[in-house]
């Protein structure tokens, strides 16, 4: 029997072995000077014996493995003929062991292979944050049985492990290359990164949809840098907000190798440039001292508040074990922190808790009390929070969203696959919310026309909150007195909280203000205002009440989504070029190599540094250079951030601000030439498809 190639001979023997019930492994071979196989020997997988090492008996904790070799002599000998064919010139079919039954043939090693379907399914599952074990079960169900999958779960795990090892030295470069590909596909995509000693230390990115969302919903930001999402312990720092459906919306994100003040200054400065110089009104962060210092320098004129959810999560570990199961303690704490409407109420309840539970010596509580104006809602009830601090469920929801694609062992490109899928899911939910709002009619609980009008103008989720206020206005709110002045009307009202509310109507412009401050903090009219409108026979909400949560964002002027893109380009002006002038003629994505004449990265050295600090941290700058719309505002933001850099606290001062912070070790791989295949392919095909191409070379 002759074969056109050695591969055909190998396949024929493996097919024969599969039918008989044994596995095959490759034995000796001879390769000629031209690289052509002259002869090759294929053996039964149980041929020979395992070599005995002298130290085998000395290692007590050595991993126990079962021996598979038993000296089986079955083999074939394949030789190349003068015609260039391959022929089986010798064989021995006898086995000294039992052959497996047909029901177990799919478990033989030489018959197992991770085929293309399994690879695609595996990568698709990892994109959806589904692990390898679950991916294998999915393959089993789809194939109709384990025997039809073609491999075992361990084979799939080994394949993915080999793939991760193959790309680990090019991980950082591939991640940046992918951002460059997205920039080429969408000129409004923005990213910026910094490299130090051929290590990626900072990277920031934002796409067109997120920038559009920031235009509509960026007045209030939530910034969280507590996520450690990869095998390098680099911090993932996302910016999020709340949209007009009262759901979390992603704006942009960054990776930071350390938590120094200068890193956060770089991040906030880059954020402003990416968003065309549009400042938020308020930002909510955790308690990190470096973050607070950076915000004070780069964004000194915005309101900065601390996340109540993060602080409340720490209560259980800071108060001592004797109070963990005390329901009365937790009830009083929640009533004090979340239920206090006035500063006096909070102060009274807090002191009562400290005294009753003997917590006078708790230093952590004392420090939280010292910064109470930054996280207790009673101190900023008149500040519009856009729903950010309304409930802990929203913080938990945002945390759950990011936990879908984080993991301490993930490479950067693995993170991107999961992140991209999760972001698409979030945006799909937004489209679902839009459809529900625009194509369904809410059920009304009263005959009040103002409730009907709210159902027409509010989004579905916001209307449910508004509807509760309407019901409360009908059932519990009673007007006690009314007094009129030249320019205003003052009304006192009682409700089910046993408190007297004072409402003021400024008659010239019909502006309403209530002492409960619900509208000022959430943007939703309170029950007291609704009751006053009902008494005045006003059956429609004014535009001022719809500014935050109308069916279409009010800043959009009611435009359809298809009309948003031109406005976005007008807002941000001409977007920055991805490459420096010296690199415009090159088609590859930005990469970092050592220049022969300097220790600085050659490609990045072409970008001029604006400050002495940036001379050491060269940056591939994608900042806008000119444009229309808010360009002057963007330049002001840049100038202000530059001034902030010059006023940046010294390292000693930074340590004084944050004595417990330590510099994280950076284990990112160097940018190596191994990524060349990825760079040359990623311009013409998708990121996911490129990874599959890269994985095809693995011998599994």
Structure write-up:
The protein is of the alpha+beta class and 700 residues long. It folds into four domains: 2-55 and 64-161, no CATH class; 191-307 and 386-428 and 622-657, Nucleotidyltransferase, domain 5 (2-Layer Sandwich), CATH 3.30.420.10; 314-374; 460-548, no CATH class. The protein is 40% helix and 15% strand. A hairpin with a 5-residue loop joins strand 2 (24-31) and strand 3 (37-44). The longest helix has 28 residues, at 412-439. Residues 554-634 and 644-684 have low confidence and may be disordered.
Task: Give the structure's gist in a few sentences.
40% of the residues lie in helices and 15% in strands.
Please supply descriptive tags for the structure shown above:
700 residues, alpha+beta, Nucleotidyltransferase, domain 5, 4 domains, 9-stranded mixed β-sheet, 5-stranded antiparallel β-sheet, 24 helices, 40% helix, 15% strand, FAR1_DNA_bnd_dom, Znf_PMZ, MULE_transposase_dom
Distance between the termini: 28 Å
- Number of distinct helices: 24
Which whole number gives the mean pLDDT? 77
Q: At the fourth CATH level, what is the homologous superfamily of the largest domain?
A: Ribonuclease H-like superfamily/Ribonuclease H
Classify the fold: give the CATH topology of the largest domain. Answer: Nucleotidyltransferase, domain 5
Residues in helix, %:
25-40%
Uncertain regions spanning at least 5 consecutive residues: 554-634, 644-684
The biggest beta sheet reads: 9 strands, mixed
């Amino acid at each position: 029997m002759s074969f056109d190639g050695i591969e055909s001979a190998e396949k024929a023997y493996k097919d024969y072995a599969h039918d008989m019930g044994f596995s095959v492994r490759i034995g000796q071979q001879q390769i000629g000077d031209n690289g052509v196989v002259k002869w090759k020997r294929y053996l039964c997988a149980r041929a020979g014996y395992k070599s005995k090492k002298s130290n085998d008996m000395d290692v007590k904790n050595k991993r126990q493995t079962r021996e598979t070799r038993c000296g089986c002599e079955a083999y074939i000998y394949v030789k190349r003929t003068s015609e260039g064919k391959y022929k089986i010139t010798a064989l021995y079919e006898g086995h000294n062991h039992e052959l497996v039954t047909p029901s177990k043939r799919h478990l033989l090693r030489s018959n197992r292979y991770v085929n293309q379907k399994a690879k695609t399914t595996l990568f698709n599952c990892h994109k959806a944050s589904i692990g390898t074990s679950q991916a294998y079960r999915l393959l089993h169900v789809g194939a109709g049985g384990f025997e039809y999958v073609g491999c075992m779960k361990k084979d799939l795990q080994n394949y993915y492990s080999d793939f991760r090892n193959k790309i680990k030295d090019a991980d950082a470069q591939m991640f940046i290359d992918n951002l460059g590909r997205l920039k080429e596909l969408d000129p409004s995509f923005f990213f910026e990164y910094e490299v130090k000693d051929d290590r990626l230390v900072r990277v920031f990115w934002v796409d067109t949809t997120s920038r559009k969302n920031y235009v509509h919903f960026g007045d209030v930001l939530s910034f969280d840098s507590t996520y450690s999402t990869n095998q390098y312990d680099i911090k993932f720092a996302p910016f999020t907000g709340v949209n007009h459906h009262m759901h979390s919306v992603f704006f942009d994100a960054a990776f930071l190798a350390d938590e120094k003040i200068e890193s956060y200054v770089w991040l906030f400065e880059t954020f402003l440039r990416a968003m065309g110089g549009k400042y938020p009104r308020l930002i909510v962060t955790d308690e990190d001292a470096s973050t607070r210092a950076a915000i004070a320098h780069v964004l000194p004129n915005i309101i900065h508040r601390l996340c109540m959810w993060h602080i409340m999560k720490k209560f259980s570990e800071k108060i001592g074990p004797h109070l963990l199961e005390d329901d009365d303690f937790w009830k009083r704490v929640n009533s004090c922190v979340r239920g206090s409407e006035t500063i006096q109420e909070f102060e009274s309840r807090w002191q009562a808790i400290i005294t009753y539970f003997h917590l006078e010596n708790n230093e952590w509580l004392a420090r939280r009390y010292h910064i109470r104006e930054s996280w207790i809602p009673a101190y900023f009830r008149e500040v519009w929070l856009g729903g950010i601090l309304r409930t802990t469920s929203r913080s938990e929801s945002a945390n759950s969203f990011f936990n879908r694609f984080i993991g301490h062992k993930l490479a950067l490109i693995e993170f991107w696959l999961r992140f991209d899928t999760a972001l698409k899911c979030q945006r799909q939910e937004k489209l679902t919310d839009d459809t529900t709002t625009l194509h369904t009619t809410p059920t009304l609980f009263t005959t009040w026309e103002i409730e009907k009008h709210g159902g027409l103008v509010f989004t579905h989720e916001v209307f449910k909150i508004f509807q509760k206020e309407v019901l409360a206005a009908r059932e519990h709110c009673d007007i006690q007195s009314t007094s009129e002045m030249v320019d205003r009307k003052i009304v006192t009202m009682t409700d089910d909280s046993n408190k007297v509310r004072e409402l003021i109507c400024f008659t010239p412009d019909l502006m309403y203000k209530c002492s409960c401050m619900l509208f000022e903090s959430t943007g939703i009219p309170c029950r007291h205002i609704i009751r006053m409108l009902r008494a005045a026979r006003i059956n429609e909400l004014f535009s001022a009440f719809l500014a935050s949560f109308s069916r279409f964002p009010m800043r959009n002027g009611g435009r359809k989504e298809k009309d948003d893109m031109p406005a976005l380009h007008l807002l941000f002006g001409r977007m920055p070029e991805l490459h420096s002038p010296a690199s415009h003629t090159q088609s590859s994505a930005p990469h970092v190599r050592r220049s022969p004449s300097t220790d600085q990265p050659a490609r990045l050295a072409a970008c001029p540094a604006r400050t002495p600090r940036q001379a050491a941290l060269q940056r591939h700058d994608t900042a806008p250079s000119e444009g229309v719309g808010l360009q002057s505002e963007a330049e002001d933001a840049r100038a202000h951030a530059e001034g902030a850099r010059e006023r940046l606290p010294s390292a000693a001062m930074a340590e004084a601000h944050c004595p417990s912070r330590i510099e994280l070790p950076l284990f990112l791989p160097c940018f190596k030439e191994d990524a060349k295949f990825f760079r040359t392919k990623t311009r013409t095909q998708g990121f996911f498809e490129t990874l599959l191409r890269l994985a095809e070379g693995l011998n599994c």
